[in-house]
């Protein structure tokens, strides 16, 4: 179907882009569970160096290793954001001193512009479920990373919309499980993903 | 007592001398030479003041290679009403121009030009040249993003102009659909173009993401409703029909052609999706992945765009409003994955679609500036009638001097013959 939402994971040349392999299926399950959005049953992986990445206006990018875009990747990401795409980048290390954070934020600034704190009353946090800010993850205080609870997400804006959304929260670890596991949770920790996707599809 | 014959001879002599005297008098009086005044395109404007002082018996004729400025035609019309016989001849090019504001918040003027086929027409405004075009089939259309004062066209020495219209004051556009890329990017394209966009996107049962207040649908708030899919049914058939009949615009995009609420308004029925046999390489254009053809067109529907798979865009009037059905359901791919200008093209295309049906309240009519007529020949004909080869003078036809000389001769011969018959010298 031409209008369905396809969850797309960004593949880049420099790092471990596939560090959260269970996340796409889990988020697709969440979307189907809470919304009427027509969603493709499986996600896709698209190389940032390939212009076909422009077919997926919401891209998810994660990893632990350094992020250095090639010229083709940088040009495509810039074009993607300028045309209205939303790149969601999550630091799988949840470490502000980590190599992913340092290199990814540097690369984003070079490619599309600097990141700034996203206010916690931004429409992203009320696009579907109501949040007071980015939901805390169990991984923020697990002894790994920087042991900080990050109060804000970072964003590079294009006008009044988000072009790149950057997270130190490690949602990649938080959401990287089989969808069936949700039945053991008192509160579904993937609900913020619904906000992210609804925001991307409507804002 | 004089005889009857004597009186006849005296009468003939008096009459002969009277006619001779009149002939001499008319040959000496300059007014006789001014019974017909002529002018050409080059000097007619400068002659008008002098013509105005002439007696009404003097006929006026203009030989025109180009139609004069409106004030000249108006002046000639006034002279005609004052009793002059006024006529014109020649074949100035029949041209016309019209300028209308585009229904687009970005502004712009749509310029229509009519001229003889093959004529080169240059168009300019008070600031600079706008465009030039060679007319192919009696007409040409061009757009200007901005125009100042008057739009003046010139072809074969003929100047004609139209005032720049007031900008169209479009109201908000309402985008309705299920949350998805098409709705998002249509709304964004219109916003980027300057439209005030309100949106209503369905996300889950009884959950909608809205932008702006979409409580009541009427032309005091909205110029156009754009339906991305059949969720437009939630607005209700009666509400939609009332809006369109009031003058509002409705765009049925993609699967919205299957809407039940809009079925009575749609230009046609919704066909099965047509896909191109080969997808283009990764510079995607409009409709690259297919479209829903518009089938079974209503009798008053017009086809606006057609592809190999059928009609892709059609439109019709309903009451005071207009409805356009667009078969394309994934124009966002064009914007995202198209060529270098795709984003701007996508924006302009959707603005044109919305503007094509949008309700625009009638604004103040632009004032004529007297710079030129929109249709100079038509204006001239309206003032003094169609072209004529020669002027016709009402009630003052001249008499041929040869006839008068013959009359004199007859009178003198009659007198002389009578005298000879009486035996006088």
Brief overview:
Chain A has helices spanning 23-34, 71-82, 99-111, 171-174, 191-202, and strands spanning 8-11, 44-47, 58-63, 86-91, 116-117, 154-158, 161-167. With 203 residues, chain A is an alpha/beta fold. Chain A has one domain (8-202): Domain of unknown function DUF4159 (Rossmann fold).
Question: How would you sum up this structure, described in words?
Answer:
The complex is a heterodimer of chains A (203) and B (425). Chain A has 203 residues and is α/β, with parallel strands linked by helices. Chain A has one domain (8-202): Domain of unknown function DUF4159 (Rossmann fold). Chain A is built from five helices and seven strands; from the N terminus they run βαββαβαβββαα. Chain A has helices at 23-34, 71-82, 99-111, 171-174, 191-202, and strands spanning 8-11, 44-47, 58-63, 86-91, 116-117, 154-158, 161-167. Chain A has a seven-stranded mixed sheet with strand order 2-1-3-4-7-6-5. In chain A, α1 (23-34) packs across α5 (191-202). Chain B is of the alpha/beta class and 425 residues long. Chain B has three domains: 4-92 and 377-421, no CATH class; 96-167 and 366-372, Immunoglobulin-like; 172-357, Class I glutamine amidotransferase (GATase) domain (Rossmann fold), CATH 3.40.50.880. Chain B is 28% helix and 26% strand. Chain B is built from nine helices and 20 strands. Chain B has helices at 4-28, 44-52, 70-81, 181-193, 237-245, 331-337, 342-357, 376-384, 401-421, and strands spanning 36-40, 59-63, 86-89, 96-101, 109-114, 120-124, 129-134, 139-144, 150-155, 158-163, 172-178, 197-204, 207-211, 222-227, 249-253, 269-270, 294-295, 302-307, 310-318, 321-326. In chain B, the strands form five sheets. Chain B has an eight-stranded mixed sheet with strand order 13-12-11-14-15-20-19-18. In chain B, α5 (237-245) links the parallel β14 and β15. In chain B, α1 runs antiparallel to α9 (401-421) and α3 (70-81) packs parallel to α8 (376-384). The longest helix of chain B has 25 residues, at 4-28. Chain B is rod-shaped and about 130 Å long. The two termini of chain B are 21 Å apart. The A-B interface holds A 2-5, 34-38, 51-52, 54-55, 57, 80, 82-85, 127-128, 198, 200-203 and B 178-185, 188, 199, 201-205, 207, 209, 211, 229, 254-255, 273, 282, 289-290, 329-330, 332-333, 335-337, 342-343.
């Amino acid at each position: 179907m031409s209008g369905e939402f396809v969850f797309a994971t960004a593949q880049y040349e420099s790092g471990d882009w596939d560090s959260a392999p269970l996340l796409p299926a889990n988020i697709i399950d969440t979307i189907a569970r809470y919304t009427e959005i027509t969603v493709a049953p499986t996600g896709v992986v698209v190389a940032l160096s390939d212009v076909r990445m422009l077919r997926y206006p919401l891209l998810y990018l994660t990893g632990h290793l350094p992020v250095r875009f090639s010229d083709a990747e940088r040009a495509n990401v810039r074009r993607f954001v300028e045309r209205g795409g939303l790149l969601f980048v999550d630091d799988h290390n949840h470490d502000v001193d980590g190599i992913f954070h340092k290199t990814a934020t540097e690369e984003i600034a070079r490619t599309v512009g600097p990141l700034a704190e996203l206010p916690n009353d931004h429409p992203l946090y009320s696009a579907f479920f109501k949040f007071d800010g980015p939901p805390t993850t169990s991984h923020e205080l697990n002894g790994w990373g920087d042991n900080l609870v990050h109060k804000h997400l970072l964003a590079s804006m294009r006008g009044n919309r988000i072009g790149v959304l950057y997270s130190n929260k490690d949602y990649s670890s938080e959401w990287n499980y089989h969808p069936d596991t949700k039945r053991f949770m008192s509160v579904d920790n993937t609900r913020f993903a619904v906000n992210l996707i609804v925001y991307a599809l409507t804002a | 007592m004089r005889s009857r014959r004597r009186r006849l001879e005296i009468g003939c002599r008096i009459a002969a001398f009277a006619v001779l005297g009149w002939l001499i008098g008319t040959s000496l009086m300059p007014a006789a030479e001014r019974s017909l005044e002529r002018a050409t395109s080059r000097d007619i404007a400068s002659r008008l003041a002098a013509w105005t002082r002439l007696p009404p018996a003097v006929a006026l004729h203009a030989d025109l290679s180009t139609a004069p400025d409106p004030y000249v035609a108006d002046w000639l019309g006034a002279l005609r009403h004052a009793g002059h016989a006024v006529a014109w001849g020649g074949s100035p090019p029949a041209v016309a121009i019209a300028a209308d504001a585009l229904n687009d918040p970005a502004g712009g003027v749509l310029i229509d030009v009519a001229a003889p086929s093959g004529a080169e027409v240059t168009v300019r405004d008070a600031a600079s040249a706008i465009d030039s075009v060679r007319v192919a089939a009696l007409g040409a259309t061009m757009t200007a993003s901005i125009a100042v004062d008057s739009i003046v066209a010139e072809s074969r020495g003929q100047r004609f102009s139209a005032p720049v219209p007031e900008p169209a004051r479009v109201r908000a556009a309402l985008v309705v659909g299920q949350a998805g890329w098409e709705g998002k990017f249509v709304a964004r394209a219109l916003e980027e173009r300057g439209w005030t966009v309100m949106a209503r996107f369905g996300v889950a049962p009884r959950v909608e993401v809205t932008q702006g207040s979409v409580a009541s649908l009427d032309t005091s708030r909205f110029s156009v409703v754009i339906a991305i899919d059949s969720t437009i049914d939630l607005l209700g058939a009666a509400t939609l029909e009332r809006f369109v009949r009031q003058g509002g615009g409705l765009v049925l995009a993609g699967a919205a052609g299957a809407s039940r609420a809009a079925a009575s308004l749609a230009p046609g029925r919704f066909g099965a999706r047509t896909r191109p046999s080969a997808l283009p390489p990764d510079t995607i254009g409009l409709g690259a992945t297919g479209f829903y053809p518009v089938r079974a067109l209503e009798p008053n529907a017009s086809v606006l765009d057609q592809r190999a798979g059928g009609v892709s865009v059609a439109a019709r009037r309903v009451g005071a409003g207009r409805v356009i059905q667009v078969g394309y359901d994934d124009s966002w791919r064009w914007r995202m994955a198209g060529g270098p200008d795709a984003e701007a093209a996508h924006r302009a295309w959707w603005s044109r679609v919305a503007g094509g049906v949008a309700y625009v309240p009638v604004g103040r009519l632009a004032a004529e500036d007297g710079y030129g007529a929109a249709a100079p020949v038509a204006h001239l004909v309206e003032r003094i009638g169609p072209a004529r080869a020669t002027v016709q003078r009402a009630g003052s036809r001249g008499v041929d001097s040869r006839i008068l000389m013959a009359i004199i001769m007859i009178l003198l011969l009659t007198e002389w013959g009578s005298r000879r018959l009486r035996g006088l010298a």
